[in-house]
Write a structure and sequence with these properties.
The complex is a heterodimer of chains A (about 260) and B (about 350). Chain A has about 260 residues and is of the alpha/beta class. Chain A has helices at about 45-50, 75-80, 95-105, 115-120, 120-140, 155-170, 185-200, 215-220, 235-240, 245-250, and strands spanning about 5-15, 20-30, 35, 60-65, 65-70, 80-85, 175-180, 205-210, 220-225, 230-235. By secondary structure, chain B is mostly helical. The interface of A and B includes residues 79 and 148 of A.
């Protein structure tokens, strides 16, 4: 079996009386595209939030590349190699597309304030490199012609693409995509599917939340299904499609089935 | 309303290097000759009645510009509302006052100490409080400003209500005396400090620290998820702002010779903040312009004595209504090339 990149063990997330995640066990293998699906409120985005350190786990543990993420600050988790996009686009609207990506790539820079002030060779080199890399990433997402435009002025689709470019700017090992195809038309979805495959081929591991079944079935290596904070399925796409529990979660159980 | 900022920036972008250098040089010459403007009939309208014009150029104008630039890093660039900025100015001023009267150090030797103490107090204040946001941070900093003033008011080493008197002037620089009769030399010193600060801010802005501050200002939660160590950069922002306030304080004490706690009230913090907001938060040139106006206008209209503050307040209200983002707003533009592409 392939190597596990991230593993959630008995993860529980409780908000007051609400159990958003209930003893969830799941893992993502290195180099795969894994999809996370489930009805609204199933806990998908909560999974992203516990992985990236936005929420502290009620119980359980998360190990990334074999080490526990417990208690790490959010920026350190990013530095370790986990980056995400947001369900509702959250770009730095007053920065250009290029600056958005460079800001993310700053996470691995060694030069700080004094380097910037005196323009040390290291700082200059890092600035140059990150700029070139940011252009390259924008090119990869097909939006390099937008490089000098402000984030808030980009068309919606390009904003979503820029979010992915920004996340890739942090050079993640695991890329978390939260509904990247929301609001896309079929042609755009197709292009996005190709992009995600290309991202995987570049060596990134992808965990994505998505509602569009044809997109998921087309590109995922594995599908994990959540319902009411519990994992109800974890299998190949075609098996999940025919899983009665999954169908019940999405469509409800017929009255005569009980 | 015409967009002055964009017009200016477009003009600047259209120029080549020699043109830019000539312009900056000419501007510097004009500015450094400002102290003499009062002597000529064609520029005598600049003169300030019932106050020495050359003194006004140093304090309040020069000092306000310095402090507004410092506060702009905190409020304008990183979006941290600091209502106690005067504390750093006071720390700088009292460091100079106490050390130059009680030891053999002169103003220039005290300068690094004053800056360091102001920075240190910025870090000490920032470490516990910069986890707070918005209104909460504003209240804590407001409290800090008052605490510093009250401590100064009640300690014996600071002279209590009497303050510190007979602070020595700084030693000459390049053979130019710095004393009561040579305000113009103070002006040039302050001008050099302002230029240094502007250089520093511009350096930061286009590199990593500027991006980090900008990201924090726009969306703190996303910034940290994109790997920006937000607490570290907030503290840097705070302490660099503090350092500039401290440096201004040192020069201020050495210029006015007598300082007292009532020079460092909450009013000053608000006034400096007004300079930043009035000129245009986050925009260096806007802030410089705002500080110049807010420092100069009240001096210029001194002849209306009683109604002065009222008129000043009215002018502020009217201008802020017409230009809610300040005279020269941040409104980051896209480069000419990007806009051309879009219209094409």
């Amino acid at each position: 079996m392939s190597e596990k990149l991230i593993e959630l063990n008995n993860v529980t997330m409780q908000f007051g009386g609400v159990r958003a995640l209930d003893e969830v066990n799941l893992h993502v293998n290195k180099g795969e595209i894994c999809a996370l699906i489930g009805p609204n409120g199933a806990g998908k985005t909560t999974i992203f939030n516990v992985i990236t350190g936005v929420y502290q786990l009620t119980s359980g543990s998360i190990s990334f590349q074999g080490s526990d993420l417990k208690g790490l600050k959010r920026n350190i988790i990013t530095k370790r190699g986990i980056a995400r996009t947001f369900q509702n686009v959250r770009l730095f609207g007053d920065m250009t597309a290029l600056e958005n990506v460079i800001t993310a790539s700053d996470v691995h820079k060694k030069s700080g304030l004094l380097g910037a002030l005196f323009g040390t060779p290291r700082s200059r080199r890092e600035e140059r490199e990150s700029k070139a890399r940011a252009h390259e990433l924008l090119e990869f997402l097909g939006i390099d012609h937008r490089a000098d435009q402000l984030g808030k002025n980009l068309p919606y689709g390009d904003q979503r693409r820029l979010e992915i470019a920004r996340a890739l700017g942090t050079e993640p090992k695991l890329l978390l995509l939260d509904e990247p195809a929301a609001g896309f038309n079929p042609a755009e979805k197709k292009a996005l599917a190709e992009t995600i495959l290309k991202i995987r081929d570049r060596g990134y591991t992808v965990l994505l939340i998505e509602h569009d079944m044809s997109l998921i079935m087309g590109i995922s290596d594995r599908v994990i299904v959540l319902d009411f904070g519990q994992k109800i399925a974890d299998d190949l796409p075609r098996n999940v499609q025919n899983d009665p529990k999954v169908i019940a979660a999405y469509l409800g159980v017929p009255a005569d089935a009980s | 309303m015409i967009n002055l900022r964009d017009k200016g920036a477009d003009l600047w972008e259209g120029w080549n290097r020699p043109k830019r250098i000539t312009f900056v040089f000419a501007l510097l010459v004009v500015i450094s000759l400002l102290p003499f403007a009062g002597n000529f009939s064609f520029s005598s309208f600049l003169n300030t009645p019932s106050a020495s014009y050359q003194d006004v150029l140093v304090y309040p104008i020069g000092m306000f510009i310095l402090m507004a630039l410092g506060l702009n890093i905190v409020v304008g660039k990183s979006g941290l509302l600091d209502l106690g900025y005067v504390a750093f100015f006071a720390i700088g001023a009292y460091t100079d006052a106490i050390l130059t009267t009680k030891t053999h150090l002169n103003t220039w030797q005290v300068m690094p100490i004053g800056i360091a103490l102001a920075m240190l107090s910025g870090v000490l204040l920032g470490l516990p409080t910069l986890r707070l946001r918005g209104d909460y941070l504003a209240i804590v900093t407001l409290g800090f400003g008052e605490i510093v003033r009250i401590v100064i008011l009640n300690s014996s080493i600071t002279g209590g209500t009497n303050g510190v008197a007979s602070i020595p002037n700084p030693p000459s620089v390049l053979g130019q005396k710095l004393d009561l009769n040579h305000s113009v030399n103070f002006f040039w010193i302050v001008l050099v400090m302002i230029l240094l600060v502007i250089w520093m801010i511009r350096r930061f802005t286009v590199r990593r620290p500027g991006r980090a501050w900008e990201a924090i200002r726009q969306d703190e939660d996303v910034a940290i998820l994109m790997g920006v160590p937000i607490l570290r950069y907030k503290i840097w922002s705070f302490s660099i702002g503090a350092a500039i306030g401290g440096a201004a304080g040192v020069i201020f004490a050495a210029k006015v010779l007598v300082i007292a706690p009532d020079m460092f009230t909450f009013n000053v913090s608000v006034l400096i903040l007004s300079c930043v907001v009035f000129g245009g938060m986050g925009n260096i040139w806007g802030v410089v312009f705002g500080a110049t106006m807010l420092a100069y206008v009240p001096q210029r209209i001194r002849f209306i004595t009683n109604a002065r503050e009222l008129v000043f307040g009215l002018v502020l209200i009217i201008v802020m209504n017409l230009r809610p983002d300040g005279i020269l707003p941040r409104k980051k533009r896209e480069k000419l090339s990007a806009r051309k592409e879009k219209s094409a």
